[in-house]
Amino acid sequence: MDYTEVLLKKLLEKINLQLKNTKKNYKNKEAAVYMRVRNGRYYFYELADGKTKGITSDKNRIIYLARNIKNEKEIKALENNRKTIIEALEKLQKPKSERLNKILNIFNDYESLYTAEDWNWMTEDYERNTFRSEELKYKTKRGVQVRSKSELLIGSRLEQHNLPFRTEEKMVIDGKILFPDFIIRCPDGRIVIWEHFGLMDDEDYYYRAQQKIELYRKAGFVQHKNLICTWEEDITSADDIDAIIKRFILM
């Protein structure tokens, strides 16, 4: 048994134990809990069998129901990770595959910084750009591969702010295939595209960049709202990128 198999089996043992303990504390028939805001005050309700009951004054009940919902989400995430690890064990004949490398990183320190939904969205398979993959020679701390130092700086700052993102995911607009540099899930639920442009002194590159921006607009992506476009002079430091993130993503 090689090191990779040992590691995966240890991870599987860990996830099985977590899954067992979480299921022990989860009640699948328990009521749902939700919140409303009126005149600046928060009110809590539970919903069960189509009936709503106010529980604002019952803090223990609120905490219990909220924790139950958290357990439900955690169970789903753990089951997905368990399935992924089992698949990896079955495919050990391809230890260098991108899929296996992703599995080995499932239980790293970064997972705790994101919600289960965001983490699964970031790490699940998606169709991405395969053109000149050898140019993906820069890597963020979380292991995301990018093509340039500027993209590395952007990706690293997004990670620093614990913002979930994908790189070069395939997008089709008006029959044209695009691969945005970054697709970001904002805390308020918005999806923001971030394109970083270089080589603007190249006439052909400049023309294609303008075409790309116009296609994004046709798909409903508007600059300064859910589309960020930067050039080399815009991101000369981490502070520049942080300012952009705070203004357009953490707004």
How is this structure best summarized?
The protein has 251 residues and is α+β, with helices and mostly antiparallel strands. It contains seven helices and eleven strands.
* Helix-and-strand structural type: alpha+beta
Number of helices: 7
Pattern of helices and strands: HEEEHHHEEHEEEEEHEH
In which order are the strands of the major sheet placed? 6-9-10-11
Global shape: globular
| Mean pLDDT across every amino acid position | 88
Low-pLDDT windows of residues: none
Helix content: 40-55%
Q: What number of domains?
A: 2
Distance between the termini: 51 Å
* Rg from Cα: 22 Å
Let me know the largest β-sheet. 4 strands, mixed
Note the beta-strand portion: 15-25%
The total strand number stands at 11
Give an overview of the whole structure.
This protein is of the alpha+beta class. The chain folds into two domains: 3-123; 133-248, Endonuclease, Chain A (3-Layer(aba) Sandwich). It is built from seven helices and eleven strands. The strands form four sheets. It has a four-stranded mixed beta sheet, sandwiched between helices. A hairpin with a 2-residue loop joins strand 7 and strand 8. Helix 2 (59-90) packs across helix 3 and helix 5 (149-160) packs across helix 7. The radius of gyration is 22 Å and the shape is globular. 17% of the residues are buried.
Defining traits:
four-stranded mixed beta sheet, alpha+beta, 43% helix, three-stranded antiparallel beta sheet, 7 helices, Endonuclease, Chain A, 2 domains, 251 residues
